[in-house]
Amino acid sequence: MSNYKLLGKNFTPPDVLAKVTGQAKYAEDFRVDGMVFCRFLPSPYPHAKVKKIDASEALKMEGVLGILTADEVTPQQAPNAPILTNEPHYVGEPVLALAAVDETEAEPLEALRFRWRGDGLELAIVSTLGDVYSELGRWRDALSVMRTTAERYPMNPEARRLQADMQTVFERLFLDGEADQIEPIQALGLFYEFSDLTPVGPNGDRIVRLLAGRLVQVDLLEQAAQLLQHQVDERLEGLSKAQVAGDLAAIYLMDDKPDRALVALAGSRQPNMPAALLAERRILEARALLGLGRLDNAVELVERDRSADAQAVRAEAAWRARDWDRASAELRTLLGMRNRALPFDENDRQMVLRAGIAMTLAGNDAGVRQLYRDYAGDMANSPEADAFEVVAAGINAEGASIREVARAVARTDLLDRFMTRIRTRMTADAPPPAQAPGTPPPEPPPPPQASATPPATTPRRQAGT
Predict the structure, then answer these.
(1) CATH of region 31-117
(2) Distance CA 219, CA 338 (A)
(3) pTM check: above 0.70
(4) Which residues of the chain form CATH 3.90.1170.50?
(5) CA-based nearest residue to 405, from 371, 367, 363, 453
(6) CB 289 within 8 A of CB 262
(7) Best label site of 27, 48, 222, 371, fewest CB within 10 Å?
(8) 23-79: pLDDT as tens digits
């Protein structure tokens, strides 16, 4: 080691002081007269091909001496990297060099115009990646990666095919039921994020109605209404508009917004509507009028309608008006219209209770006795059995007991059956609410409880008395 001057010995490099003090000069620090400056244009894409370079505007600029392309440099053999390339393989790989008389004049790179062709391999990979994401249920990832690539290469035929693939994925989601596997609110977010993929025509309208049905099923009524309101305002005309506006009005009624229901119906009236649609919209309008306290208008609207739904409107109006004699008569008529071939359900039992309460408040004890004879068998052993015994006591019923039953019955609506029918139709194609993996199935509901449980102080009336 003693024969070496530097190896194995401490020493101070002669240029270290200049470097640490900033006084050292590097190649880029030297300037001479007539010096030419160069700038490289890097590729903005990870893999693409240059189809054409238009340098005409750049070459017209003062101080620009020329450009150098990959076609003008000597090809390099591997492992040497090319100086310039027409097929970059990473973002930032140089594709062009521009010479100018000073550094500021090198900025005309921005004036260059390129035509790029995205590599078919890249597009094929993105298409495959979209398929993989779809199979994994990562729908947002699938649509996002395809959209980003399609927008990057808008003129490429493969990109247009990618756009078609996006449409297919969107329809798989919202037409073929794939979105049924995710939460309704997440499905709604996906729909809004990629709503530009909604097909024009019947399929697009069906997508919106199916999604609205899912939202109604889980009581996301405001979101469902927003979807259908857009359809009614922007997309639909004629009979289709009248049909969807009817559903929209029903959703507003479910959400306790009768005023908006009336607006939806009024703005979508059409000539020569089918009788069934006309009848449904008429009952919806009457229900909205009842909700706004316009009882006489509701009754007038269904004056010539002899259906059970219209009779429910008349009975409900009389009940809300506290016209107990008329309410008694309308309720007895409504009970007489029920289909006796069907089981006596909760709606029927509520009607019986209402009729008995109305007769009691009207002082019609004979009517109460007749009601008991007619329906004692149907009401026995039902959740409303005890409440019916209180009502059946008529004018002799203890005041607190009859009031308790009356309050319970008043929380119901004689048009509940009609509204349930519409809700069932709207949600017919909706799947059961999505359940988290590993979640045990829900336990069966407990036996129904009586809708009113009055004090057991009223003696039972014997049938026939």
Answers:
(1) 3.90.1170.50
(2) 29
(3) no
(4) 31-117
(5) 453
(6) yes
(7) 27
(8) 888 887 888 888 888 888 888 777 788 888 888 877 888 888 888 999 998 888 878
